[in-house]
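Narrative progress, year one. The postdoctoral researcher (J.K.) led the effort to move from monomer predictions toward full complexes, under supervision of the PI. The following entry was the first complex the group processed end to end, covering 774 residues in total.
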Amino acid sequence: MKKLVALTMGGVMLAASALFFAACGDGEQKTADGRTTVHFWCQTFTEAETLSWVQDKVDEFNESDVSKEGGFAIKVTFVSEDAWEQTLKAAQSTGTAPEISTVNYAEVALNSVEGYYTALDGVMSESCFTDLLPNVEEMTNVSGSHYIYPWFVEPDAILFYRKSALAAAGLDAAELTSWEDMYTFAKTIKAETDYEYGIAMPNSSQLGWVLWSFQAQDKNSLGYYMLDDNWSRAEVNTSFHRQLFELFKKMYDEDLTPAVALSSYNEITPLAEGDVPMAIGGSWSIGQIKNNYPAVLDDIGYVVLPTVDGETEGVTTTALGGWGLVIDGRAKHPEECGAFIEWLLGSDTTHLEEFMAALGYSKFAARTSVQTALAETPEASGDAFYNFVSESILPYAKAEPAYLWEISRKYADALETVTQLGKDVVSTLATLETDLNNLIEAEALAGTNPFHKQ
Amino acid sequence: MTQEMLAVQEAAEDAETRSAASPKKHNYKKNEVITAYCCLLPSFVLMMLFITLPLILSLYFSLFDVNYYLGNTFAGLENYGRVLFGTASKEFYRSILIGLEYVAMIVPVQLILSFLVASLVMKINKKYAAVIKVAIYLPCLLSGIVVGAIFSFLYNYEGGLLNTILEGVGLDKVNWTNAQGWAIFAVCIAAIWNGLGYNTLIMLGGLYDIPKDFYEAAKLDGANWWKQTVYITVPSLKNVGIYLLISLVVSSFQLYEIALVIVGAGALHSTEGPIYYLYYQFNYTKNMGEVYAASLIVAIVLTALSSVIFRLTSSEKSMD
C-alpha cells in the first residue's frame, strides 16, 4: 500500500512540476548547432504551392549566411485557416505567440493600434519600404510606421466565365460590364444552355468580405467604404446599395445562382468542374485552374467585376487584399525577425519571382523592383491574365476596409435577410444604416480611423 | 401484519432515530485516510487546474478591458453591461434563445426515443438486442465534427442524399441548411442521432434495475403494458430520468460543433447557440473581457436551468 501511495504522490508531483515549468518556461529554443529558434506561423492557403515555397525558402534561409552569422534559425509552423484565429489568440493570451506570422492587410491597422505588432522601420532597411508600390505602401503605413511587410497583393473579385457557355448562348463577353449585364447574361445562359444556374454568386460565410469589392465601386460613398473618412457616420440607404441588394435578390429569386454555395469563395471549383458557367472569384482562382484544371484553362475567360453603371475602364472595380508578414508586439528577437523578413520578401527579387511563377501569376508583386523584374521575364510578360490584372485592375483597386469586422458582418446579414427571407430592400437598408450608426456610437469609432490624416 | 414484522419495523425506526441523533463515527486507520486522499488528489488537482482556476480567472478578467499587449484596464461590471445591454446584446440573447430551442427540440425526443429503444431491447431476443445496442451506440463514438460532416453529405443542396431522393421522386430540392426554418431541425436531427445510443444505454441500465417482482405482481393484479409502464416503469426510472434530463439540457444548450460543420455561418445565425456565440466573440472581439463576461453569464444561465429542473422534479427526494 505504501508503495502505491508513494507512486501516486510521485506521479502527481511530477505532473504538477511539468505543468508548472511548461507554464513558466520562456519558450527559448535552440537548434542543434546552438542557434536561437525564431518561430514563424504561416496560415495554410488554398494553394499547396504556397506552403512548399515557404518551406523551401525557410530551409534555404537556415542554410544562409544571414542565419548562421546572425545566430538564429527560423522554424515554420503551418496552421490551418479554420483554426488560425483561435490558435493565434490562445497563444497571444499566454504570451507564446510566434514572433513572425502571416496576416492580411485588413487586420493590420486596428491590431497595430492595439499593440499587437512591432514596427518594422527600425529592424528593416529603409530601401525595403521605398521599393513598395505607392498604393501598397499606403496599406502598410499606419500613422507613419510600417507594421506589415507585403508578401503579395491580390484583387478580391474578378468575373470568370466559360467561353463555351457564352458562345452557346450567343453572348459576347465584351458586353458584360454592368450589374444588369451580369443578370441578363446569367438569365440567358440558364435559358439557352444545359446549365442549371447562370452564375455562382458569393454566399454565406465569406459574404462579409467578398462584398467589399462591390462596395469599393461606390463612387458616391461617404469616403471610407460605408463610413466617412473619420468613421463617425455610416450611409448605406442609398441608390447604390439598393441596386446591389436588388441584383442579389433577383439572382436568388429566379434561381440563377445556387441557393447554397457550391464551394468556399476561395475555391473556383464549381466553374472549373463545369457546374456553373460564370463565377466571381479572386485573382487566385486562375492559379487554381492552371495548377489543378489545366485541361479547361483555354475555356476560361475573365472580365473585371461589372459595375453598377457599366463603366469599367480606369475605375475601381474591386477591393485589393493580400498577405504579408508581421512581427509580434512582444517578440524577443525583433532584429532577427526583421532580418528574415528582409531576406525573404524585401531584398532578392528572385524569391518573389519564383513564388509568382509557382502560383501561376495569380498573385501580384507589392514592390516596384519585383514588378519590373517580372515584366522582364517572358513567362510573366507573356501571361495574358497577369497583364490583364496589372493593367486593368491593380492600379485602381482599393485597399480592403480596416474597420471593425462587425460592420461588414452586419451588411452581409442584411443582404441575406433579403435573399433568404425575402425582406424588403429599402426597409432592410434603413434598419442597417441605423444599426451601423448605433454601432459607431457604442464602439466610439469616430476619429479612430488609423489611416485618416486630419 | 404479524408481530414479527412489527418488531422488525420498530427496530428499523429505532435505528434510524439513533443514527439521525448521533452520526456514526468511522475509525479509519491513518493509512486508509492517506490512501483515500491520494486517490482523490489527481481528480482534485485536475479539477482545480481545469475547472476552478479557469473559473476564478474568468471572473477576474471579466472585470477588465483585456488587451494582451497594452495591458488590462479595470472596467468593473462594464463588460457584463455590454453583453447584456450593449450593441451586441441582441446577438447574445438570440444565442440564448437558440440554445433553449435546441433544448426544447432535442431533450423530449431523446428521452422518449431512448426509453422506447431501451424498452424494445429489453423485450427482444438477446442476440438481436446486442446488435441493436451496438448499432445505436456506434454514433456516440464519433465527435460532433464527424457527425456534422456525415450529415452534411446528407443535407448537401447539390448531390446530397436527401435532395437526390427528393429529385428522384420528382420533388423540388430543399435547402436544408441555409433557409431559416430547416437549418435548426437539420442540426437537431444530427444531434439526436449522435446522442441516442448513450441515452438508451443509461435508460437500459435503469430498466434492468427495476425488480421483476413488481411486474409479476402487477400482472397478477391484471395490469396491462400501459399501466405497468405508467405505474411501475416510469416512477422507477425517476433517478435515471433526472440524470438524463439534466445532462441532455446541458449538452443541448451547449450544442455547437454539429451546427458549425453543417450550417456554419449560414442561415442568418439561426443555429448559433451560446457556445457558437462565445466562439465567434473569442475570434473577432478585441476586448476579451467581454468574452469572459459572456461565458460566465452563459454558465449562470445553465446553472439556473439545472436548478429549475432539480426543483421541478423534487430530485432531493428521489435521489435518496
